[in-house]
Amino acid sequence: MTAASTRWFWYASPQTFYPLAGTIARWCGIAAAILAVIGLWIGLVAAPTDAQQGDAYRIIFVHVAAAWMSMFLYVAMAFWAALGLAFNTRLSGMLASAIAPTGALFTFIALWTGALWGKPTWGTYWVWDARLTSELILLFLYFGFMALQAAIDDPRRADRAGAVLALVGVVNIPIIYFSVQWWNTLHQGASVSLKSAPSMAPIMLKGMLVMALAFWMYSIAAAMVRVRCIIRERGA
Amino acid sequence: MSDFLAMGGYAWYVWGAYGVTFLALLLEILALRNRSRKT
């Protein structure tokens, strides 16, 4: 076994990961706070009022970043759950459980800010269109995962049961992402894509990316604090 | 300042979105702090 792979396995033990999680949480928390201040300043002050949507468009800076996080976090949760199922490592399941509540939170934020953006631009808070419905299903998948884990007393069994649910639910992620292409929806297409040049002003793009980075840092910090709680609670 | 708060007439939508986001994150931080203290 090479030195690098032994080190990864060394961190796969909850006891050795515990202090590392604390360090990551501290630095990511600080980074999140700084990035959020910069992102809020760009989004609420520096970015000019939109010609078509007025100031209502400013919701984009939280909405898009939260929607990205809701999907990324689900994939991260399913990834750790799958790793736990495959290798039976304790820490993987703990990480999956630690990510779920933050993922659910960002899903809720994406839906809430979307509703408040939908009203002034579409004239309605909610429509049962493909993008909105699949995002709502994502929220229920997070809730289902947490409820299932909470219902099983033995943590190792709870991890395995949750992992199966998380993996089945992964199918919903491409559905959310491609829903705006596959179906004729009210929701607009992707604002940012790797293939084409961004269709928005550079300052708006900058604000969105800074907010997304802030949410990333926040999510990592929250998951690390929570995984430390889980490690302590399970007496590992 | 009042122009800023009015958000061009979209105050409820913009501040409703930002406010609830802030509140949700704050609640998670408080819940985590609470959980950390318990164990």
Task: Give a verbal description of the structure.
The complex is a heterodimer of chains A (236) and B (39). Chain A has helices at residues 3-11, 14-46, 60-87, 90-122, 130-151, 155-169, 172-182, 202-233. The mean pLDDT of chain A is 91. The radius of gyration of chain A is 19 Å and the shape is globular. Chain A is mainly alpha-helical and 236 residues long. Chain A has 8 helices and no strands. With 39 residues, chain B is an all-alpha fold. Helix content of chain B is 85%, strand content 0%. Chain B is built from 2 helices and no strands. In chain B, 21% of the residues are buried. The interface between A and B is medium-sized, with 31 and 21 residues.
Summarize the structure.
Chain A is mostly helical and 236 residues long. Chain A has eight helices and no strands.
The assembly state of the depicted protein chains is: heterodimer
Could you say which structural class the secondary elements and strand pairing of chain B correspond to?
A: mainly alpha
Number of β-strand runs of chain B: 0
The shape of chain A is globular
Distance between the termini of chain B: 45 Å
Level of helix content of chain A? over 70%
Q: Count of helical segments of chain A?
A: 8
- Kindly estimate the percentage of residues of chain A that lie in beta strands according to DSSP: under 5%
Query: Could you tell me the mean pLDDT of chain A?
Result: 91
Percent helix of chain B: over 70%
Mean of pLDDT of chain B: 92
Distance between the termini of chain A: 26 Å
Could you tell me the radius of gyration of chain B in angstroms? 15 Å
Shape assignment of chain B: rod-shaped
Largest interface: A-B, 31 and 21 residues
Instruction: Tell me how many strands of chain A there are.
Output: 0
Give the helix tally of chain B: 2
Q: Biggest sheet of chain B, open or closed, and with what strands and sense?
A: none
Coarse structural class of chain A: mainly alpha
The rounded Rg of chain A comes to: 19 Å
Element pattern of chain B in H and E: HH
